[in-house]
Specification:
It is built from 18 helices and 8 strands. It is an alpha/beta fold and about 450 residues long.
């Protein structure tokens, strides 16, 4: 877990050398080398800017970095590994409680280390987005003059929360949530490692999956719950951690839900069918079950976008806009706040008028194509923008609708084989009722009726 400085900054050769015997499991298991680091394969890939920073060498040549990503994805660890790679002093400030004076004191100490002893300094600023403009400005001299290699961590988009001069002097590295395999690896190692639980407990498969879901891509959260669950299991005189131990340790009810199994498909199916059935209470129930079980909120948001077109469609076109906005919001803010956005969208879609006319129309059209009912494009509709197209009759007889009264001319647009076919059949629900009346008038003008 982050080690925040008091008001007077503290400098250490390396946080790896500190005694962590009484520290939480997440601190004890903090990777000491790049080989122990789990996740972020793209960010630390061979040849990437971050990989170069992590290689042993002179810190003077290293660039400052802004690490942007969710909690528990390795930002603090990467800062420490960069410091260790350059044999630098490691100093840390928490933007939560540090002020301008603290920043200036750290920069001054780093300057002295550089000029008097030739020792470089890595300054890690956690939650840098919490620094105001004046506090961020105070970092600039140290970064610009190379007195410190700044490693700034943020969970918010730095384009909006970090000043432009600091952004321009730093590399931006985006970190992602750990995937299930990464979290499983972190858990497995913590169980057997002497720094961790040293084999005192085991975790059965169902409990492991629950830990992974509760972690939500956050390694620190996974280790925190694992340590608490181990305490519950051992106090109850058994060494195999089960879901009840995890539930007791995390104050989190056991939600049996396999993201790759029947529960996943059954519950998302019930969720969508409840929205289709206009029951917001049932839809919210299934939404809550998925969220509490650790389902990816982005998956839920994608299903809402599908529902907005499949089940509501032209009855209320604004629901697709709302679902898209919800998906974008969920991707930007993440959990737990995303639950509110998903709730808003769920209720709105459940209460919206329903129409599956767009869904049926395209499926019926595709069915005809697959059966070979295609036909030839009418000559007036063919491309006439090439030499001798007119000789073939292409474009001849085409009437430009914008030149006609009302913008509609009586013309045949479907191939001859399908000229009487109807795919779109509007409902009389919601705003589509108005479209239905309009479509009947248009069909008459087109000569379709």
């Amino acid at each position: 877990m982050p080690i925040h400085l008091p008001k007077t900054p503290v400098m250490t050769d390396s946080l790896f050398d500190q005694d962590t015997g009484g520290s939480p499991l997440a601190v004890r298991m903090r990777p000491r080398t790049l080989d122990e680091f789990v996740g972020q394969r793209r960010a630390i890939a061979q040849g990437s800017p971050l990989h170069k920073l992590l290689q042993p060498g002179d810190t003077d040549t290293k660039s400052s970095v802004i690490l942007w990503g969710p909690p528990g994805t390795g930002k603090t660890t990467l800062a420490q590994l960069i410091a260790r790679a350059g044999s630098a002093k490691f100093m840390e400030l928490s933007a939560i409680n540090a002020g301008v004076k603290d920043v200036r004191d750290v920069i001054s100490a780093a300057q002295d280390n550089k000029s008097l002893y030739g020792v470089s300094t890595v300054l890690f600023v956690d939650e840098v987005h919490r620094f105001n403009k004046t506090q961020q400005d105070a970092l600039l001299p140290g970064v610009e003059n190379g007195w410190v290699t700044l490693i700034a961590a943020t969970t918010e988009n730095p384009s909006f929360s970090v000043i432009a001069p600091l952004m321009s002097r730093s590399l931006l590295v985006t970190l992602s949530e750990l995937d299930d395999t990464d979290v499983s690896s972190v858990i497995s190692k913590a169980i057997i490692d002497p720094r961790g639980l040293n084999g005192a407990v085991t975790v059965n498969e169902e409990a492991t999956q629950m830990l992974i879901r509760l972690a939500g891509g956050d390694a620190r959260r996974a280790l925190t719950v694992l340590e608490a669950a181990a305490g519950v299991a051992l106090s109850n005189s058994h060494s195999e951690i089960n879901v009840d131990d995890i539930s007791a340790a995390s104050d989190h009810n056991v939600v049996r839900y396999d993201k790759a199994g029947d529960q996943h498909y059954d519950i998302i199916s019930a969720y969508i069918k409840s929205i289709r059935g206009s029951d917001p209470d049932a839809a919210l129930h299934y939404l809550a079950r998925m969220l509490e079980a650790g389902e990816d909120p982005r998956f839920i948001a994608r299903r809402l976008m599908i529902s907005a077109s499949e089940d509501i469609g032209l009855a209320d076109n604004s629901m697709l806009q709302l679902a898209v906005a919800a998906a974008q919001t969920v991707a930007l803010i993440g959990m737990p706040e995303a639950r509110i956005t998903l709730s808003q969208a769920t209720i709105a879609l459940a209460l919206a008028p329903k129409s599956n006319s767009a869904y049926l129309a395209i499926d019926n059209a595709i069915a005809d194509i697959r059966q070979g009912d295609i036909g030839i494009v009418p000559a007036p509709l063919r491309d006439s923008h090439y030499a001798r197209a007119g000789d073939l009759g292409h474009g001849i007889g085409y009437e430009y609708p914008h030149d006609a009264p009302g913008g509609i001319v009586a013309a045949q647009y479907l191939p001859d084989a399908l000229k009487t076919t109807t795919y779109y059949r509007p409902t009389d629900r919601g705003t589509e009722a108005g479209l239905s009346a309009l479509w009947r008038k248009i069909r008459t003008l087109l000569g379709r009726d």
